[in-house]
Specification:
The chain contains ten helices and ten strands. With 345 residues, it is an alpha/beta fold. A seven-stranded parallel beta sheet has the order 1-4-6-7-8-9-10. β6, α6 and β7 form a beta-alpha-beta unit. The two termini are 14 Å apart. It binds zinc ion.
């Protein structure tokens, strides 16, 4: 009950890359960089285990950015000539590579870090990949001319890598789709279908992470503009509830998401965001347990997976470590506190 996990990313140590940035520059190159990525991955597996999390991940230590890390291994993408593009409906500008030819994987994308993580933990291992809709919003298209067609092409590549990750021993494959909360109509019309193509044939657990973004200023400003009730999830959850994807995340703590939206996901496992990634204030176990209590009003307790609202990549390492501990301690308190209360939603 209340198995804990993080959304995916964790801060990179200062000896690996720049810190507290979304697109940090590596500080090493070649074999030294590869060694440092491995060391950082091992460090974070240990920190997650020591914190007491039930499900661990590689902390995305081997990729510069959660989308571009995947794109670097895709043929047909020009990384030499990046262009400035407004992403997430022009919320902020990013330097993005361009799709210039038919897409094909150059080979395995994440074998190194997935196999390393698998060899060093006996805990359940979750591995994250960017979702198709979020990918097409984070790359410039000079070839396909249609978002949906390009998303389906990416979905096929994601499926290849996902099946290989499953063979590496990954227990949960999660697709990250923050763009689902920006392009709700596209998400409902074909984004969920593209996800199912990406997850086709998987027998491990499948998940999708949907959020209001990292704790960066552009996102905080955007959230300020969304009013008192954030109902974006309501437009996408029905399509997801009808899909084959098994776990779905939502932001809860410190958000304006109406908690009753969780009732739309009754037959799914729900990764409930109980840790705020836009604040350095460390949650108390009581606050985390309270948020779990709110989720219990709408979901059976065995379907609640306490989680962070989003990735922790742009935070300081010290704060992230404390937030991991708060997550695990809060879930432990909730197990104690709610053990005696009988009724399930
Ligand atoms: Zn997120």
């Amino acid at each position: 009950m209340f198995e804990t996990a993080i959304a995916g990313s964790l801060p990179k140590p200062s000896w690996l890359s720049e810190t507290e940035k979304l697109w940090p520059q590596w500080k090493l190159a070649g074999p030294e960089l590869q060694r440092a990525k491995a060391d950082a991955t091992l460090l974070w597996i240990k920190e997650q285990e020591d914190a007491g999390l039930d499900i661990v991940g590689d902390g995305e230590q081997s990729r510069q950015h959660f989308v571009h890390g995947f794109l670097e291994q895709v043929e047909g993408i020009d990384f030499e000539h990046k262009v400035k593009m407004g992403i997430r409906n022009n919320r902020y500008d990013a330097m993005v590579p361009q799709v210039v030819a038919p897409l094909r994987l150059k080979g395995r994308v994440h074998a190194f870090e997935a196999q390393l993580a698998r060899a060093h933990t006996k805990k359940k291992l979750k591995f994250t990949l960017p979702g198709p809709l979020t990918i097409v919003d984070t790359v410039a298209d000079c070839f396909y001319g249609d978002k949906q067609t390009m998303a389906m092409a990416f979905a096929e590549l994601l499926n290849q890598e996902a099946l290989a990750l499953q063979a590496d021993g990954v227990d949960i494959i999660q697709f990250d789709e923050p763009a689902f909360n920006v392009y709700m109509q596209d998400a409902a019309d074909w984004g969920v279908k593209a996800l199912e193509v990406a997850a086709r044939g998987l027998t491990c657990t499948t998940a999708v992470h949907i959020c209001y973004g990292y704790g960066i200023k552009a996102n905080s400003d955007w959230k300020e503009s969304l009013g008192q009730e954030w109902r974006q999830y309501a437009q996408v959850f029905p399509a997801l509830a009808a899909s084959s994807i098994q776990q779905i995340s939502l932001e809860c703590y410190h958000s304006h998401v109406p908690p009753d939206l969780m009732a739309l996901l009754k037959n799914k496992d729900v990764m409930v965001g109980v840790i705020d990634v836009a604040s350095d204030v460390i949650e108390t176990p009581e606050q985390v347990a309270d948020t779990i209590g709110v989720a219990m009003q709408y979901l059976p307790r065995n379907r609640i997976f306490p989680c962070t609202n989003c990735g922790l990549a742009p935070m300081s390492r010290e704060v992230a470590v404390k937030k991991l501990a708060a997550l695990a301690k809060g879930a432990a308190l909730a197990r104690e506190r709610y053990a005696q209360t009988g009724s399930d939603a």
